[in-house]
Amino acid sequence: MPNQASTYAAYKAAFAGLAKPFAYLDLDLLEQNRQQVLRLATTKKIRIASKSIRSVHVLHLLMDSDPAFIGLMTFTGEETIFLASQGFNDLLLGYPIWNPTLIESIAGLVDQGRAITLMVDSMAHVAHIEQIARKFKVKMPVCIDLDLSSDFWKLHFGVWRSPTRTVEAAVQLAEKIALSDNLVLDGIMGYEAQIAGLGDQNPATRMKNHVIRLLKQSSIAEFTKTRAELLHTLNQKGITPRFVNGGGSGSLLTTTLEDVVTEVTVGSAFYAPALFDYYQDIQFQPAAGYAIEIVRQPRTDTYTCLGGGYTASGACARDKLPKVHLPQGAELTKLEGAGEVQTPIVYQGPETLNLGDPIFMRHSKAGELCERFTQLHGYSQGEIKMVFPTYRGLGRCFL
Ligand SMILES: Cc1ncc(COP(=O)(O)O)c(C=O)c1O
């Protein structure tokens, strides 16, 4: 539960001078999440998913806070180059890129001694990067993305990303990389999205939550073996990648149990958006959100606000809508949801709401909030302590 300083009254008073809409980051709750991540990561190193933060200043704050944070998982080529220019090192681009100009720029940075690793999942990726690396006479660090989805009869439990689905296929890729003068196998990544990114007590999938939990257990048992077998086979062949990356915020409890995993990726846990309320075994504090302004009152219990409709990416469903955070008990309406210009909020609780008052909302995803705002107002103990520009606030927009 939010502490005393994170109530509707406290937020309303502290943010009273700001024009709405605005975004905020509760630094006290961020700190609780940071400590929780460090606790749950146990002995594993932590790579911060920049897509779930999207603020250079917040990334620096987190990275500088503990030696367990060893680097970033970035999400586009341009973003990676930008973050390198902002002083970050050990950047793992979490997704394959193809644009030759961007790969050339990254090869140039690697040549200057910057630690940047590109993602590959196929012979085509390997050949493409190798050709550019050869031209630039650099040894390009690459990481193999091993698919960790599970197929249960006709159900594909996981995501459609990497075509490298077996130990044999990954070993073949690793051997190809090992033979190249211009590539080095820096890491192995397996992202168990069906565990890390899928809630199992989601009111939107109430009927399915029990089944999801069972599928999660079976899938974990399956890919834990695959990951261990791959590393064992590679080691036997004398191939020893620098890191083995796994997981995400929602799988911290299980990814950290795997001996072969050296580091976990964590991003969403820091802001803890609404979708992260729906995990049975793992909880974070609602640190980031935004405020919209009540501008009309069409009936006694309904307060209509200006704007507010920041829906998240992914398959369209109710849980991609933002969630009303404070005052507690306030809700969106089923028919209108969160609108482009108007968002009705139904509230029958003890707070007196007037025109001009704020309603505090949470995005359902973490970093996407920052694409809507130029700043995050850093709140602590009843005051705005500092302001963090978002990527958008720095004039940057990557995806
Ligand atoms: C490759 C990869 N690793 C890790 C993550 C986990 O990120 P987060 O902790 O923000 O959920 C993601 C999220 O989409 C991802 O795509």
Report on the structure:
The protein has 399 residues and is an alpha/beta fold. It has 2 domains: 1-25 and 272-390, D-serine dehydratase-like domain (Lyase, Ornithine Decarboxylase, Chain A, domain 1, Beta Barrel); 75-261, TIM Barrel, CATH 3.20.20.10. The chain contains 11 helices and 19 strands. The strands form 3 sheets. Strands 1, 12, 13, 14, 15, 16, 17, 18 and 19 form a 9-stranded mixed sheet that branches. An 8-stranded parallel beta barrel has the order 2-3-4-5-6-9-10-11, surrounded by 5 helices. Helix 10 links the parallel strand 10 and strand 11. Helix 4 runs parallel beside helix 5 (100-111), helix 5 crosses helix 6 (123-135) and helix 7 packs parallel to helix 9. It is globular. The mean pLDDT is 97. It binds pyridoxal-5'-phosphate.
Show the helix and strand layout.
Elements: H1 8-14, E1 22-26, H2 27-40, E2 45-49, H3 56-63, E3 69-74, H4 77-85, E4 91-93, H5 100-111, E5 116-120, H6 123-135, E6 140-145, E7 150-152, E8 155-157, H7 167-179, E9 183-190, H8 193-196, H9 209-236, E10 243-246, H10 252-255, E11 263-266, H11 268-271, E12 288-299, E13 302-306, E14 323-326, E15 331-332, E16 342-346, E17 358-362, E18 375-380, E19 383-389
Parallel strand pairs: 1-18, 2-3, 2-11, 3-4, 4-5, 5-6, 6-9, 9-10, 10-11
Antiparallel strand pairs: 1-12, 7-8, 12-13, 12-17, 13-16, 14-17, 15-16, 18-19
Helix pairs in contact: 4-5, 5-6, 7-9
Pyridoxal-5'-phosphate is lined by residues 49, 52, 73, 94, 191, 196-197, 248-249, 265-269, 366.
